Amino acid sequence: MSPRLSLTVCGALAVSLAPLLLAGGSLRAAQAPTQPTVHAAYVLLAESPAGSTVAFARVIVDPSQACPALIDGTKRIATTPRSNPHGFAVKVCEARYPFGRALAVEGGPQLPAVVEKPSRIAVLGDSGCKPKDQQGCGLDDPEWPFPALAKAAAANRPDLVLHVGDYNYRGTPSSFKVTVDGKEVQRWYYDAGDGAEPSERCGLPGPYLSQNSTGNPDADRWESWWLDFFQPAGDLLTAAPWVFARGNHELCSHAGPGWFYFLDPRSELPEGGGRQLACPSQDGEGPALPHLRLTEPQVLHLGDLDLVVIDSANACDQLPGLVDVYRGQLTAAVRRLRGQTAWLMTHRPIWGVADAPATLYGCDGQPQSGLALPYGDLNQTLQCALRGAAGEALLPKLDQILAGHMHRFETLSFAPPTGRPPVLVVGNSGVAEDTGPPVGAFAQTVDGAPASGFSIIQFGYLELTRDRKGPWHGAIVALNPAAWSPFLAPCAAPDAVDQALCVKPGGRP
Fold it and tell me: Of 9, 69, 116, 317, most Cβ neighbours within 10 A?
């Protein structure tokens, strides 16, 4: 209970008020400083220039407001504004964040403590909403389950949250229409290999078309980020620290400006590398490369677990591009591994089974004909980057690969002695799912090696847990657990004990 306010004015306070009263001034109650409106607050992990794992707190407020402090007991830690080169209608403030202590945001929520050795990890991916493909993108619309899944994940109290990319769908249209010689013509924004048009299929020679060209009404906006990610993820953002992977919807031709402002771990703070990244100019329809922003991998040390985070946004799925860039990145990352366990986290799966592409390409970029297979596989850019020394050094050290991009959940395992780790594709956390084949169990050659797995079109997220001494175990937290029964046992069932994965309910039915 607060102490009662004394109406007695005495001592030095009375003296200080006297001149004001004698001069005919009015005495008013002291005004408390205005608290900022906090739109979102979260903690993210990053690799420092020295190779250590550090944490940053970020707080999003209105641009006219001062950056709020972080409250650590009786101590206040100042936050400073990030550069806003793309002119977003909000201010992002940040500060270095300690491990092991939960701090509060002035005028905002309590932030989570950072656990040095996490034992419960939630993995989500492809969580935004496509208005043209989903019947409603509101917080309670049943065809967009991300808000419910995020609340379920927060209630399960994770130590860490991993998001494998594609946060903003409603603000990233794939195409637009222009009038040419009196006729309406459809044109596509650059999308690094995910569409049917040359400008989408990793068309590095061009034409490069971007949402973020000067004056474009489709330009990246705060409102889309708020509706698609920050609002529905609010509880989960303050439940645990996050690691963010960049998806192809965060290309500079799409929502890249917001990615670098809100989620990219690099910062002007010394521990963030001393330099905040941004998208280069998006004007001009020439070659793509001057308009792209390629970022180096992050290697995070989490106790005995190393997490390698690769930015695969620009890694084309079928037509190899930038292979040498990714080969260099993967080679550099492997030198920084030092834990007993290593996971690779990226948006585009290095290996995934999907509909067969119209054309297959070799690592030289030339069309090839190969074995007739039931399904195609991706990602050719990353597969080519791992040929030779890079793959020989990295793959034996990886225990698993976490990815998204494919709008479904898929597992993929290789028969020995390939040395390739299993792949878990978690692309089923909100966006309209891909109903194309394969659905169910499959087995075929993938990138020249025998592989098997299953693919299921059901919403959910992945929870990875371990006890203090044991190995990691996986559970699918699903809206409809019964639909997973052909592949996974319920987590409470005895026959789930020997499985690498089980399934349990979460979110709304």
Answer: 317
Q: What is the full DSSP assignment across 156-222?
A: T--SEEEE-S---STT--SEEEEEETTEEEEEE---SS-SSSTTTS--TTS----TTSTT-TT---H
Q: How do residues 310-347 score in pLDDT, each as one tens digit?
A: 999 999 888 778 999 999 999 999 999 998 999 999 99
In angstroms, the CA 3 to CA 271 distance is: 43
Of 277, 268, 357, 287, the closest CA to residue 311 belongs to 277
Contact 250, 53 (CB under 8 A): no
What is the C-alpha to C-alpha distance for residues 70 and 262, in angstroms, rounded to an integer? 18
| β partners of residue 440 | 455
Residues whose CB falls within 8 Å of the CB of residue 296, separated by 6 or more in sequence, listed in order: 311, 329, 332
Strand duo 104-105 + 91-97: pairing: unpaired
Rounded to an integer, what distance in angstroms lies between the CA atom of residue 386 and that of residue 372? 23
**Counts of helices then strands in the chain (DSSP H, E):** 8, 27
Dump pLDDT digits (tens) for 175-199. Answer: 999 888 889 989 889 988 765 554 4
Q: Which alpha helices (H) appear in 357-444, and where do they start and end? A: 380-385, 389-394
Q: Is 402 helix (H, G, I), strand (E, B) or coil?
A: strand
- Give the integer Cα–Cα distance in Å for 332 and 394: 10
* DSSP-based three-state secondary structure for 299: strand
- Which residues have a Cβ under 8 Å from the Cβ of 53 and sit 6 or more positions away? 45, 46, 47, 300, 301, 302
Residue 162, judged by CB atoms within 10 A of its CB (0-12, 13-18, 19+), counts as buried
Q: Which helix (H) or strand (E) holds 84?
A: none
Structure-token pair, residue 273: 């590398």
